[in-house]
Structures are given as structure tokens and as C-alpha cells.
Fold each of these.
Amino acid sequence: MSFLGRLFATDKAIDNITDKDDGLLVRAGGWVGSLNYTDQEKAESAQEVREWGLRQLEALEPFKVVQRILAFGVTTVWALVAINVIVAIWVKAVWQIDAAGEMLSFAFSQFIFWPVLSVLALYFTGGVLPGVFGGKKSK
């Protein structure tokens, strides 16, 4: 202690800070420990968090509208391709004209398959993935 006292201050100054009964650190710790968080303050804090969450959701509304438009457009294209494939299968069955192979290859092409798969997977699993990967919170 004497080495530190001589290097930075006197022994008395160091004892004033580090004394286990009356030191400044003990007094500061007692002050911090005596702080309380009342039920009213907890309720106010919870209300502020809820309001903040609602403001965040309101900020995302335009993106949700665009997401729905994209999903509707891609679903429409997918439905049209599916109807054309079904019609091509019936044409092959009735008139022996093979258009089904070309329609199926178009349906599974890079132009249709991957955009439809990605948009619909993201749109329909948007609410599922946080529960699966984020862990379930118990109340």
C-alpha cells in the first residue's frame, strides 16, 4: 500500500477510497444499491416500450403493402402458368398435340420457378421463421 500511496497519493487518500467500512467505494455502492424501480415506473416503462413497438410497425406499413403487391403479382403469374400446364395436358390427351412438355419446362425454368419459390417462401414464412429460429418466449 505504501508504494501505491507514494506513487499516486498518500496512504490516507487510498484508504479513504478503499476502506471496507467507510470508503468512498462502499458509500457509492450503497447509494446505487438503494435505488428502487417502483411498480408504477415499471408500468410506465412497459407502456413506452409498447408505444415504441407500435410506432415501428407503423413505419413498416408501406413495405408490407409492397410485399403484398409483389406476392399477389407472383402468385398471379404462377396461377396462369399452372392453368396453361393443365390446358396443355388436356390438349395432349384429347388432340395428341404435345404442348405439355414445353409448358412444364417453362414452369420449371429459371424465369418462373425460382422467383415464385423465393417470393412465396419469404411471404408465407415471414411470421414462422422468428418463432422457429428465435426461440419461443414463455409468459
Amino acid sequence: MSANSQLDSNKSYTFNIAFAGVIEIIAYLVSMLTSLNVSRILVIKRMLMAAAFFHLLYYFVIPHNKYTGFPKAVVIVLDICIRMVMSFGNTFLAIYSIELFPTSIRHFALGMLGFITKLMYMVSFILDTFFT
């Protein structure tokens, strides 16, 4: 559901995908820097707490596409925060797993993680329309 509410529903599918990509690139860069400079267990604990916090806040502002003005801006900020935390978490855990598992296992797992994540994001627009 968060894929459709990132911006105004009048924005195009391509714009939403591009916007999500920019957010994810920023999260990836921050994740790499954090992985090098901060204790990993501490980061994983904080990441899980932040993800739970933003997802709960996001849950309580239903319906996402009915707001205008400042409330719409709050929904967009929550959506951006969720995407940042999830992208950061995926990359951080990927970096962590790269150090733990043999090459063949991690290449398959990380490739599938990336593929399924992007596929589900792109299909979410179609599934949301279908189920609505």
C-alpha cells in the first residue's frame, strides 16, 4: 500500500518508481557508511525499532490517499521514512551476510532479494488496483 501513497495519486507510475529509486540510493549509501563505522548489533536493534515505529504511525493515518495539505505532507514523510528504513535495513543485512556466507549462497540470496523486492514494488500498483 505504501507504494501508491508516496506522492499524489495523480502522479505517474514512472515518477513513483523513480522517486523510490532515489530514496533507496540515499539509504544504500548511508547503510554502507554505517556498516563501516557503527556496531552492527546496535544498528540492527535501532533499525528494527525505527521500522516498527514508522510502520505503526503509517498504519494509524489510514486512508492514505484522502488527505490534502499538511496531513498529506505527513503521510509522504512517513512513507519516505519507511522506504529509507527498509532500504537501509536490506542493504545493512546484505553487507552483514556477505561477511558470513560463502560466495555462491550469498550471490543467489542477494540477487533474489533484490529481484523480489523490485518485482513486488512494481506489482503492488497492479495488485492494489485489482483488489480495490
Amino acid sequence: MSRKFSGLLFVSTVMGLLASAEPAKADLNYNIYESSGNVVIETDGSLSALPTSTGPNQCGASGVYSAVPAVICTGPDIPAPQYLISGPTSFTTGSGSIFPASSVSGITSAFAGHLQTFIIDNSYVLGTPIIGDAIFNGRTLADFGLTPASGLLGTWTLVGTTESINVRVVPGPLPLLGVGAAIGFSRRLRRRINAYRSQAQN
């Protein structure tokens, strides 16, 4: 009897601590990995704040990777609001420029380290998942001057916020990376369902 009570007390204490914890800072991640003989650049994460837009801009190609200067574009090449970012002008490793991608999908987003700018589709709703990609068929990480061990290539901050944009090489699609990734995927799925329900009610 006392053991059950202790277990329930422990669970309720942990749940209370989780509920009272501050929400994690939002990040947008550009994940680069090889999959079935192709290189994929895929976004995950979300943004909870954006600075004032400095006007519209667009990438100029559907799907771009460039190491020097640091440029990545995912999703369709359409005009989108531009925001100032702060960070390096090139990746810590990698080489060359490869564009356009063989295919793109999802939310349009892009950044240019040398111009210190970031764009994201005007339809993006803060706090919702940013899901987009650019797929380069018949390419390997070596074509990008990268290896599976390259890791984090750079981090940028949206000016006036605490929001971060990270570019990193990962072993594979995020849902396959383990428990931490599965939890993140579950959260994104839950957010997407809640957003859908909210839209359906309006």
C-alpha cells in the first residue's frame, strides 16, 4: 500500500515539476543527411518569435546549399518576408554550392549568412512546426564537402529574439535518431494536430 502511494507521489511530483518548468526556447534546425543515394536538407523545429520584417526577398532557386557563403534554401522558391539574423558568414566545414535541388516541398524558408538575412513563408504561424525540405538526387555528403561526423555547421540568432537557427549534419531522418528525437517528433505531431483542430473550429 505504501509503495503504491510512494510511486504515485513520485509521479505527481515529477509531473508537477514538468508543468512548472519554463517552455524550451524555440529553434529551427536544418538537418543534412544521406538517404537512399540522395542528400536531404530537412527542417524541423519552430519559432516562437520573429523580429520586424525588412521587406520581401526570395532565394532565387528551388533548393540551395552553399558552404561559402553560408546559404540554405528549402521549400518552393517564392517571395517571403525577410528578417535580420546574426551569425557566421560561412559554415565551419563543407565546400561548394549545389543548386537547384531535384525536388522541394513544405514551408519555404532560407537564410544567407553573408547577408545576415532569413526568410520564411508569409503563411507561417508562430509556434507551429516548420516542415520543409530540399532533396538532391544522386548526391553524397562528400559532394557537399561533408561527412556524417561533421556535426554542427553553424548557429544564427534572429536579431531581437532568443530564437536560433542551426545547421547540422545528422546520421539520418530525425524519427530514426532515438528516444530524444522520437519525443521531439511526437511534440511536433501534437502541435500539428492542435493547429489543425484550431483551424477547423474557426
Amino acid sequence: MNLSTFTQFIELFPPGRTRARYERLASELGGQAINLTVPYWDQPLWLVGDALAARALVIRGVRRSQVWTLGEVQDLVGAFGPLPRSLLEAARAMGETPAGQPNFTGPKDD
């Protein structure tokens, strides 16, 4: 699992128009967004606080199937364990393989 907050992502850009555009988007997202890559999905997932933040990403071309709200993650994960209470907890829950379950990264060559 590789995870970064939207703020960390923005810090990769030098000052300028691109960085300013992402800073405006961060403001629209309420400062809460996590980009997450998981072994069983070929596209990065975005975890955001609510449906308004999800809509802000969709308007900018991110597929809705790649955007999960905290409530959606809670609905999914809550059926199998404790409810994540923050985006960071949700990211960890989405990226971890439950004990006793197969690892979705595929077979390993030894």
C-alpha cells in the first residue's frame, strides 16, 4: 500500500499555476483527501470526507469508482470489523488484507 495526503501531493509541485490549481482543489476538498494505491486495484483510489469532496474530484475527471467517501468505507469495512473514524484509518482498512485471506497481489516467484 502506498498512501499520501493531498497536501503531500501538492508539495511535490514548485510554486506556480499548477500548484495553485491543486491548492484551490484542496480547499474545495476541505483539506481532507488521501490518495491510496492498493495491490488489488490498478488505479489509485481517492478517500475523501464526504460526497461534496467526491463531486469536486469527479468534476475534474476522476472516475467516481476511484473516489470513496469516509461513509462508504465505513459501510464496507464496518461489516467486517471496527469502523474507521478518520480518513487515515479508512486508508489503512482499505489497504490491508484481512488475516487468513489471500493476498491479491498475485503469486510470488521464489
